From TrEMBL:
Entry-linked InterPro entries: ABC3_permease_C
Protein name, entry field: ABC transporter permease
Keyword Membrane included in the entry's annotation: yes
Domain ABC3 transporter permease C-terminal, residue spans: 192-309, 619-732
Annotated Pfam families: FtsX
The species this protein was found in: Actinophytocola gossypii
Topology within the bilayer: Multi-pass membrane protein
Membrane-spanning ranges: 21-44, 183-210, 231-257, 277-302, 323-340, 352-379, 400-422, 616-639, 666-691, 703-725
Keywords: Cell membrane, Membrane, Transmembrane, Transmembrane helix
Entry's localization field: Cell membrane
Superkingdom of this protein's organism: Bacteria
Amino acid sequence: MNPVQLAWKVLRADRRTQVATLLTAAGVAVATALVLLLASLPFATESRAERALWQEPRYELSTGVAPTIAWSFSVDEIDGRQITRVDIAPLTDGDIALPPGIDRLPEPGELLRSPELAALADSRPPAELADRFAAEPVGVLGDEALRFPEQLVVLVGHTPDTMPANALELTAFGTGDPRPDQLLTLLAGVGLVVLLVPSLVLVASASRLIAARRERRLAALRLAGATPAQVTAMVAAETGIAAVAGGALGVAISPLLHRAATTVPWDGGTWFAHDFVLGPGLVAAIAVTVAVLVVGAAVVGLRRVVSTPLMATGGHTRKPLSGWRLLLVPAALALFFWTLSRANTGDGALPILVALGVLMWSPTVVGPWATSALGGIFVRSWRRPAALLAGRRLRDDPKAAYRASAGVVLAAFAGSMALTLMPSLESEAGYYSQFRDEVLYLDTNEDRAGPIAAAVDDKLARYGLDARASRVDQAELVSGDQYHTATIATCADAERLLAGVGDLPCRDTPAIYVDPALDVADAGVPDASTGSAVPLPADAPVVSTDTAGLLLVDPALWPADAPLLEVNVAVPADERTRETVRTALLAGSGGEQVVSKEMKLGQQDTQLADLRRVTVIGLVTASLLAGVSAAIATAGSVMDRRRTFGALMAAGTPVRTLARALRAEAALPALVSTVGAGALGTAVGVGLFGLVSGSPAVFSPWLAAPVVLGALVALIAASVCAPALRRVRAEPLADE
């Protein structure tokens, strides 16, 4: 009889083996489906990037090929949602190749927009959205041209002379190499570790349900003359049946998991269903790899049966764990912070990632020792029989007792690291602008500034608003060997538009307003062509102000043709008029980039929200997997010690006492380990935050999540104790 036939025979005859096989297959299915999902994330972001190539700003090196289009990219905002705008004008009479999803190039004064933007524009007054584009809708963009289904994107047609000032001249439209999202790719890699480990622990826990019975069966076969190869082949076949069935099930349910993933927003929107499609070869490779890992783990676990079958059936004395294990965590932590201290030496991120990997692995070495130490405390200080029984178990087999907690420990570590980083990063969120928060403005050139301001004023008047556009420019002044940045604006505009500027002693005539701490004596505008400075009017009045760092020059005093660093057109707006003012700026400028506080902060808010969402999903999933594996491990522990528990019950030990002991030995290692892993993850989060900021880290109440995680796992594990013991009491010991 070959090993597969023998495995099938055992599976048909033994009910407990059937249960263990089903649970192992379920664990393999979960692991396979999760790996397929996480492996598809980089490809999904690459699909997004490929569809949005025509929207992406890019620069071309000179190739000797004449440009065919003028192209400009900008972003807009409405109700906290980003609008992507592309302005385009043909530079040739020939045909221009169009990207998928764009069936025609809009003529000047025409536009194509996404279905979501079309619905939003039609639902609002034109002054709030539709008028921004100053063009007539002539169609919609197809799904192949959208980054994600809800994307707000518009393609506006122009003539070359009406294009925005920042327009580029390109040789083709929508070409380039798509690149996957680096952040999501990194998170997918972390997720493979954080979620795959609990899944494999679930598989191992399922295998433990029949560990003792399998060892006795295999030991009997060895004593009857079976060779190590035959025993190994039989276990490989027995585990392989579950692994193959689980792998096939995981592949079958992965589309459902992918469908659920399409509803999770990332970078502003959800996903198309076909984004997560993997090639058949990659799917098969992942399924086979997971199955091989499971079978390999089962085969490696046969060392004791193969080498000493009598010891496998008869019990053996385990060597106590060395206290030297405790040194691994501080050593790994010291290595991690040492690599952080060398982050700016040009070694790159690889040493940090390696040190982080060692640190994440260290709790698996220290955890069993801590479990054994906890058991020793119970043995020495017990007051009830349940505490003594739990302590003896934790003391005698700490590796098995800790095994069920391994997955949740890793999740607690990663979660604490993220929950330390995110509040700290949120505290750093913000932006600097010379303008007040309520001001909207755009950056243009000096030739266009005047016409844009006039067109914007005309739009504002048509919309019945009192606000008007003002120019606020930036320039460089030199006084002696000191260089200063000057703001070129009227005193009234400075009070109304500039941040940090309070009441100024404005005069009726043009003047220079300056912080007395700045030395602007004989200040002039540096002229690069002559190496000298063009002086400001000698008779210009200089007024001292209380505004620190202010150097304000009235436009009437600015020398003609003197260079400017920036030219801005700005308009203040309140909450009621904000969208209308934005419309006036966009329509009046022909599509220049309009800047505002909400746009500056929007991308940061979106990214932080994505990280929070991913962290919560990962922690919840890891908690459930770890909890289920802990519950199965607890049930397996009962089955392994069925004779012992049966003898204790026969001797009169109450089931509730045994259940209390099992709850303690299942719950306490998980709770203690997650608290320790949480503290370690917090320390790592503080170190990583120090790479990007010199500010102190921010600690939030969410750092208690690892403790809650450990408690959740403990509750799930403890819930199976009493039912498992009742099953032991109901079955005759002769079955063993």
